[in-house]
Amino acid sequence: MRRGGRLAALAALVALAGSGCGVLPALPEPVPNEIVPSRVSDLEPAEGSETISPDGFDAVQRMAVRVRNVGCDELSTGSGFAVDEYTLITNKHVVADSDNLQVSTYDGRDIDVGTAATAALADLAIVRTRDALPSYPVLAETDPRQGDDVTIVGYPSGGELTISAGRVIGSTRDPLNANLGEVLVTDAKVEPGSSGSAALDDQGRVIGVVYAKTADDDSLLVPISTVRDLLADATAFENVATCEAS
């Protein structure tokens, strides 16, 4: 079913982790008039999502991490995934205004965090760790096409690791970062705390990073082509400001 008309007239865009940043400035039509961060209300798995047992986790599932941001003014949670043994990807708004950034694996093991840096172009952040991460997936070479299957692996509401399946239903101009260009839209469900989750194709390769959802409960992804471009650019990320500096 064609969704272009609905995607071009999104009623609202909702960030998926509380970052304490308030309401962002209004944007030109046809994008939403305001973007309101969602606060994490509990630490239970998202209703209707499939909870994954730790038994028999393969490398793709073990690469997902839970991120807790003990911030300057509040606590928020998000998700992330490893891209190599000591580097993980999450969202900029997940690590913003951080006083203490905490990362843990699916089996509850705490990972010692070193540094964090955010991208100016997209809602992406890199976190370097001192402890080795359990495993990391393959990054897809190209972006998915409309109709391709997608599986999102993360920690909605800061609870248990869950999966949410759907399809890529199109693309739209990114309402949060005007210079970023096109982002992917899927019908896989996400919740507060899903920010930074890896979106995987049917071969377990990362094809995008969850960063928001729409008022229609569709999920928005930074496409893997953008992720690859930013990871290859040494100037794309800058260190996260501490509470004292912000």
* Number of helical stretches of at least 4 residues: 4
The span between the termini is 45 Å
Strand content: 35-45%
CATH architecture of the domain at 58-136 and 230-239: Beta Barrel
Q: In a nutshell, what does this entry contain?
A:
Pfam families: Trypsin_2. The protein is mainly β and 246 residues long.
Verbal overview:
This protein has 246 residues and is mostly beta strands. It has a domain at 58-136 and 230-239: Trypsin-like serine proteases (Thrombin, subunit H, Beta Barrel). It is built from 4 helices and 16 strands. The radius of gyration is 16 Å and the shape is globular. The model is unreliable at 1-14 and 17-49 (pLDDT under 50).
What is the secondary structure topology, with strand pairs?
Elements: H1 4-7, E1 13-15, E2 50-51, H2 59-62, E3 64-71, E4 75-84, E5 87-90, H3 92-95, E6 98-105, E7 110-111, E8 113-119, E9 125-129, E10 149-154, E11 162-173, E12 182-186, E13 198-200, E14 206-214, E15 219-223, H4 224-231, E16 237-239
Antiparallel strand pairs: 1-14, 2-11, 3-4, 3-6, 4-5, 5-9, 6-7, 8-9, 8-16, 10-11, 10-13, 11-12, 12-15, 13-14, 14-15
Pfam families: Trypsin_2
Keywords: Signal
Protein name: Trypsin-like peptidase domain-containing protein
Key attributes of the depicted protein:
246 residues, mainly beta, Thrombin, subunit H, 8-stranded antiparallel β-sheet, 6-stranded antiparallel barrel, 4 helices, 8% helix, globular, disordered N terminus
